[in-house]
Amino acid sequence: MPANILCSSGSGRQTLQLLSADGVAVSIESLRGLCLSTALAVCISISSCWQVLAFTETAQAEVVQGQAELEPTAMQPFRRPVISRSQALPPLPKDFPPLPNLSLPDTKQVMLPNGLRIFMLEDHEVPVVHGTLLMRGGQRASPSNKVGVATISAQVQRSGGTQALPGAQLDEALESRAASIEGGAAGESVTFGFECLTEDTRDVMGLLSDVVLRPAMPQRKLDFFRAQVLNILEHINDDASSIPRRELSQLLYGHGSVYSRRPTPKQIQSLEMKDLKDFMARWERPDNTIFGISGDFDAAAMAKLVEQKFGSWTPAPGQPQAVPPIPTTPLAPSSDYAGKAFLVDRPGQTQYNVALGEIGISLQDPDVYALDVLNDLLNSFGGRLFDQIRSREGLAYSVSGSWTSTPIDHPGLFVGGGETANIADFLRLLKKAFQGVIEDGFTDNEINMAKEQTLNGFVFNFASTDKQLARACIYALLGIPQDYLFTYKAGIEAVTRDDILQAARRHLHPEQQAIVVAGDRSLLERSLSKQGQPFEALDIGFKD
Question: Residue 65 in contact with residue 84, Cβ under 8 Å?
Fold first, then answer.
């Protein structure tokens, strides 16, 4: 309900009048000189149920008891009855309706004759449509001698435009509709996504199909992205904080693993347009793709539109390509790294960047729920590592130790570390904290708080339709059951103190973990030699 604006002033003072729904008036008087925003903030802070009747420069508010007499003005020459604020404000609610049960979204699924699977989730709240094509393969499918081809091919395919609309013209067509089309490659997939207003869905869907089915693939774009990646590789070690974790991953998995490898300058320089087109022909096929669409549309009409735009997409001969299998054991023998410290010399650096760890678990491991709770116990604000190493000892601003998320068919890593000026004490206390986990565990109160923290955030998995649909598509692409999120919730709820203790003893081995430290070698040698810690110099150059 719009507020009436009343002003009253005189003798260097100004008066603000507020009126509640039941006729209660509050006068706010102040001396001249304070800003209008301060006055408005005072009005809002009194109660959201008040209507602003007059704006003023204000510093102090008082509730007028009994009969409030307004100073006569041409706008408002009358009196209003008032009562106390305590009588006017409504009581705080004590009872709340029960929250609705969370459930899987009503996703409609259609498969086209060419094998393209469409996942659709309607949401008519705003006139916007989102869509993402997920093609199985991605960086994991890049040949070992062409690491980086998945990422560069997706970038050239999108930025180069289509045969009908070269790059700049495609961008202009999208900008004129406040729409977007993006492309990229992740570990398990190549993706092309769009966003547009409902009224432009047909046009933008046509542009997306041209990007996927009829890309221009200009040579100049390959030259541009090849030079860009080479520049990134040239400066890859400029930031010392990224070195330990990257090198630790290569130690644990081996340099040939798809989860630790990186492109070399020689590989990037050797990439030709034929390499990009061969990769696209092998992996970009409809029977290897899921198309997720959410937003303001009718599902039946959307399915017809997708068939019109993508129905001519013909798969290459043969069955969809199988993603190369990943070994279930690390490629590097554990004896090569267990319990050893590896040093990366950074002359003149006063802080030390540290990462230590070991092979972890896959998503299929029954200990995944207990270790997820343990992650919270170690790393949350006030968690074991934060409390002992940062708060009590002041050895590091940041410190962590957790099991990383992994694909369903491959073990991840446990990685701990941080940044510190006192490397010897930091490593000693970090290992001591991990040892305490497997010897003493945690109290029931600590565990219950960690579980509640995870479970209380469960609802945010359903915060938006596009987020829910993206999860459904990724699960389908990777072969994860659609109800896994609820299986995960039940698993967290069932975790006990003994579950965490036994899982930690099975998977956490502080004395066998490899350590990678980046810092000044001369200082590192003196610090670690005092601890009796052997070390080796680590070559972080590219290995062709």
Answer: yes
- Interatomic CA distance for residues 336 and 330, integer angstroms: 11
CA angle 194, 200, 206 (to 5 degrees): 60
Cα–Cα distance between 199 and 178 in angstroms, integer? 11
- Cα–Cα distance between 359 and 252 in angstroms, integer? 7
Q: 419, 430 in Cβ contact below 8 A?
A: no
Measured between alpha carbons, how far is 204 from 530 in angstroms, rounded to an integer?
65
- Which pLDDT tens digit goes with each residue over 47-90? 433 333 333 333 344 434 444 444 444 444 445 555 555 556 77
Please report the beta strands in 139-188, taking only residues with DSSP state E, as ranges in sequence order: 180-185
| Residue 313 CB-half CA count within 13 A | 29
Rounded Cα gap, residues 41 and 44, in angstroms: 5
Q: Find, among 66, 23, 60, the residue nearest to 45 by Cα.
A: 60
Neighbours of 86 (CB within 10 A): 7
Residue 478 amino acid letter: L
> What distance in Å separates the CA atoms of residue 511 and residue 357, rounded to the nearest whole number?
10
Domains contained in the chain, CATH given: 8-87 (no CATH), 108-310 (3.30.830.10), 334-537 (3.30.830.10)
Indicate the pTM of the whole model: 0.78
Q: How far apart are CA 454 and CA 363, in angstroms?
A: 17
Name the nearest CA neighbour of 83 among 69, 72, 68: 68
List the structure tokens of 263: 């492109």
Structure tokens at 240: 């010392």
Distance CA 437, CA 445 (A): 15
- Which residue, among 304, 306, 328, has the nearest Cα to 411 in the 3D structure? 328
Q: Name 232's Cβ contacts closer than 8 Å, sequence gap at least 6.
A: none
Distance between CA atoms of residues 516 and 538, nearest Å: 8
Element (H, E) at 44: helix 36-46
CA 359 to CA 378: how far, in whole Å?
Answer: 18
Specify the 3-state DSSP secondary structure of 32.
coil
CB atoms within 10 A of CB 439: 10
**pLDDT tens digits for 209-247?**
999 999 999 999 999 999 999 999 999 999 999 999 999
Can you say whether residue 417 is alpha, beta or left, with left for phi > 0 and alpha for psi between -120 and 50 degrees?
Answer: left
Under DSSP, the state recorded for 326 is -
The full length of the chain comes to 544
Residue 240 is classified by DSSP as G
The interaxial angle of helices 423-439 and 368-379, nearest 10 deg, is: 140
